[in-house]
Amino acid sequence: MARHARLLRPKFEQVISIFREELDGSGIASWTEPRGGYFLSFDTMPGCAARTVELCRRAGVKFTPAGSTWPYGRDPQD
């Protein structure tokens, strides 16, 4: 697991760095920063999650489907 963490850590650091540079303080998104884990949460403005996931997919960034953390995969704000 330590080797796996060494491989993933720079990738997470790069993602968080870009989020901070491009989105911090904009009010259009928020996110969690992993502390030893391998997952982060990214929250968009209401109504934008599915479109954001699609645009990220096209850019080669993988997210779980919008609404995945909600019952039946339906986010009431999207």
UniProtKB/TrEMBL annotation:
<dbReference type="InterPro" id="IPR024551">
    <property type="entry name" value="AspAT_Ic"/>
</dbReference>
<keyword id="KW-0032">Aminotransferase</keyword>
<keyword id="KW-0808">Transferase</keyword>
<dbReference type="Pfam" id="PF12897">
    <property type="entry name" value="Asp_aminotransf"/>
</dbReference>
<dbReference type="GO" id="GO:0004069">
    <property type="term" value="F:L-aspartate:2-oxoglutarate aminotransferase activity"/>
</dbReference>
<protein>
    <submittedName>
        <fullName>Aspartate aminotransferase</fullName>
    </submittedName>
</protein>
<dbReference type="InterPro" id="IPR015422">
    <property type="entry name" value="PyrdxlP-dep_Trfase_small"/>
</dbReference>
